[in-house]
Structures are given as structure tokens and as C-alpha cells.
Amino acid sequence: MSPTISPTELSRHDNITSLWIAIDGEVYDFTEFAPTHPGGIDILRQHAGRDATAAYNAVHSASLVKSVLPESKHLGRLSSPLPVSTSTTLSSNKTAPKPPLSRLISVNDFRLAAHTFLPPKTLAFISSAATDCHTHRRNNTTYSEITLRPRVLVDVSAPVSLETTILGRAVASPIFVSPTSLGKTVHPEGELEIARACKELGGIAQVVSTSASFSVADVVRAAAEHPGPGPSSPTLANKNNTHPVFLQLYVDKDQSNTASLLHSLTRTKTNPPSPSKIQGVFLTVDAPVPGKREADERVPPPPTTTTTTAASTTITPMATPLTPSSDNRGSALGRLMASYISPSLTWHATLPWLRALLPPSVPLVIKGIQTAADAVRAMEAGAQGIVISNHGGRSLDTSPATILVLLELQRCCPEVFDRMEVFVEGGVMRGTDVFKALCLGAKGAGVGRGVLYGLGWGKDGVRKVLEILNDELVTTMKMCGVTRLDELHPGLLNTRAVDHLVPEDLSEEHPYAKWRRSKL
Ligand SMILES: Cc1cc2nc3c(=O)[nH]c(=O)nc-3n(C[C@H](O)[C@H](O)[C@H](O)COP(=O)(O)O)c2cc1C
């Protein structure tokens, strides 16, 4: 039986040299873990010696604490409950009722509707992008600059199957769910609901963020327990009635944390070994430092309250004088979340290190490629895939729209499409966007914010967002005279309006400005 700890004893451990916290009636020692906490040490210091159940549950799954702390750090049960001092969630501060799903017929409808009921801080976190948001906008608008070249008088009566593979796994569609952090800020079951929707749709690939509210193991478990469409579904891509789950990886400043995370997900002690919990790793490389997201910085967390009345218990775990709200740069959740991410990844050290950590059967994909030269480097480094991405315009404003980078690869290094899988994400809001990406060689197109807006309605909302995109893709294909994904090719597009923006070769030099400040 675990020891009993009194509130008085708990309250003695209220500082960084001895940092105990109670969660759901259990007391944990966070002293060693605190400096590496992904959300920063300040938030743990704020709750040191206290009951942090409400703040914890607002962003984390119940089981996460047990998976990140060793058993020895679970000290015992709290002898009597403590009054709740601060609580609860970014998503509890609703401002309007949600419109019914039946009224929403486009991804943009979801975006607009989410603006009516998501609390301001959650909305700012999701919708924000770096500085003036040029890249965020252009990710989307550049798709509309590329026009279609429909072929008519083609029999398109055959049913269209969107089934394909992603990194060797059968999927129901080339559209996949991009990794996003803190799903619980939108829905209490966050990434679990996304997994359920992906499974119900017959196997949509889901990339789960290292900074998700739920661990990947929780996501895999939730999907396994969810009935899904059943193996008898005639359109089921994945006959095993599962959906592929990939881990998006931020390498921790303390690399041993990353090593043990990967070990726990890909290696088992069982004999014979059970399969890896994840079907691949997407290493994010476009956010070595946090982007300056001004909307997220500007919107303060809801005000702190110390009362326990039902009406006033709405607060984020960040709302204290120690949190970003007291910082003279603002109060961005994104910046707080990024504090554990290593800024020192390199081609020559990080990739071989990661490859050696992963079993050979687990593919490694580099997420955040923004030039043809880096695509070639990734290929030469032995990556199984790349994601052309600029983090949805959240990292570096005025970096190129992702569809332009896809064109750059076609122009400068077309061989990469035969040697590895190329994915693209950023600004995908329509089936026509997906169609254009696929015509230009993408194996799949990822959706980030659109899925989060759908998550406001739980799994049914996520499902509807993905269904809308699938339907629009099928309609576009038929209108263009094709009924199979392998019939898509660049000739179905006119890219002249943007061709002048596409670099012409792999050179890392400017085409004519050769001047250098330093001769070194
Ligand atoms: C709220 C939010 C959180 C995100 N968190 C992560 C993350 O934890 N890891 C990551 O690699 N990318 C993250 N991204 C970037 C997405 O994976 C993806 O690149 C981007 O959302 C695609 O653009 P879109 O939102 O226009 O579809 C996040 C994006 C958003 C909107």
C-alpha cells in the first residue's frame, strides 16, 4: 500500500530544491524532472507543494505523469483533499454555443465557427502565425494562383478510391493529420478524438506531436479500443482495422529524454518482440527556436482566481506572475511550450544518432524542409521521407509557401520523388489544394489547423473536416478527367503565375548578387 502524505507535508516541498505536487490525489516528486518539463519549470514551481489537479488536467492526459516520471517519484496518496486554488482550462471559457455540424460544409466554415466559441487564448494559440503572417497567408493563397487544366469528355463514372500508402502503410486517403500540440485546449479528449475519427474513416494517417496533450501510447490505445468502421467495411484501406500513427519528434535539450521516449515506443521486452507502437518518426527541424507569434503573445490568459466558486474557476495553468503573462515579450503559449526543444540539431550528428536509436523498420522523415538543397541533403542522409513545411507559417515569416517548394523540387531535384516520399502541408483548406499537391509529386498532404477547428466538435467534427476534404478531392479529380490517384501529374496544372518565384537550380548562392560582407 502506498504511503499517505498530509497536505502539510506536501506544502513543505514548495521550491525547486524539493518540488512535490499532488495530482488526482497522488503526490509526485518533480524535483529532478522540473528543469526538463516541456512547458517550462515556472509552471511547476507555481504549483509546488500544492494540488495541481485542475491545471494538470486542463492540458495533460491522466496517465501522462506516470509515463514521464519513474515509479520511485510517486511518493504516495494525499491524506485529505486540498481546496482547489486555481483551475482549469483554456477551453472552459466558452463564449457562444457551437453551430450544429450539419450547417458546416467547408473547412473554412469550421474555421469561422470555431472563432465564435473557442476562448480567445485557445483561438490565438491555434490561429496565430509568425509576425506579419505573410507565409501563413501565402501557404493558402499560392494554391489559388495555380490553376487547373481540366480534361473533358472522359468517362469518370467509376468510383474513385483515395486509398494509397504512406511510408508503406495502407491509408484511406493521401490526406493526413499534421501534428499539433495541446489538443486538450480545444477538446478534453484532444488527440484521442482525432485518433478515433481517423480510425472511423478507414485509416487516415495521424502524426502525433511530442507536445500533444496525450502521449502517443495513449493515442494508440484509444484507437485500439475504438470500434472504427470494422474489418468488413468494403472501402477499408487498412484491413486490420487500425490507422497508422506516427510520432512527431522534437529532440529534447536533454537528449537522453528523447532516447528513452523512442526506446519506449519502438522496443519491447516481450519475446517474441511486439511491433513498434509507432509506424515512423517525423523529426521537426523548422522550429529550432520559437517563432514570434504576436496574436498568441498579445492575448493574455484568462485572469487568475483563487476562489473555488463554480463561476470563477476558469484559468489556464499559465496565469501566474511567473508565467509568460509577466514577460515583456507577451504571453505566448507557443513560446512556453518550446522551452525544452533543442536548438542544436545538425545533419551530421542528429540524423545518424536518431537512425541508430530507431529499429530499421521504423522510417525517419524530416519535417520542415524549405529548399531543394535541403531536400537533397535529406535524401543523401538516408531519410525515408520529407515534409515540406514551414510549421504553418508559425516559425519564420516570409519563408516560401510550401507549394512553391514542391515546385522547386520538381525543377531542381526531381530524383527525390523516386528516392523518398515527399509530403507537403501548410494552407491546405480545399480538395483542390490536395489535388495540386498530389499532381506535383506529393505522396500526401497534411492538415493542421483545419483538424483542430473540427476538434471543437470532438471526433465527429474532425471526421467531417476530413470527409469534406476527401469529397472535394474526389470531385476535383472527376472534373479533371481522372479517377485514380496514379493518373495525377503536373500537366493537369498551370503554374505560370508562380513560376518566376521558383528557384532555378540547387545553388545556395543568390543568382546574381555575389557581394559578400565577409571574405571568409
Ligand atoms: C496549434 C498548432 C500547434 C502545432 N504544434 C506542432 C508541433 O507540436 N509539432 C510540429 O512539428 N508542428 C506543429 N504544428 C505545425 C503543424 O504540424 C503543421 O505544420 C501546420 O499546422 C500546417 O499548416 P496548416 O495549419 O495551415 O494546415 C502546429 C500547428 C498548429 C496550428
TrEMBL record:
The keyword Oxidoreductase applies. GO terms for molecular function: oxidoreductase activity. Residues 2-79 form the Cytochrome b5 heme-binding domain. Residues 79-99 are annotated as: Disordered. Its cofactor is FMN. InterPro entries: Aldolase_TIM, Cyt_B5-like_heme/steroid-bd, Cyt_B5-like_heme/steroid_sf, FMN-dep_DH, FMN_HAD. Keywords: Oxidoreductase. Residues 99-498 form the FMN hydroxy acid dehydrogenase domain. Residues 79-92 have a biased composition (Low complexity). SMART domains: Cyt-b5. Coiled coil: none annotated. This is Uncharacterized protein. It comes from Achaetomium macrosporum. The lineage of its organism: Eukaryota, Fungi, Dikarya, Ascomycota, Pezizomycotina.
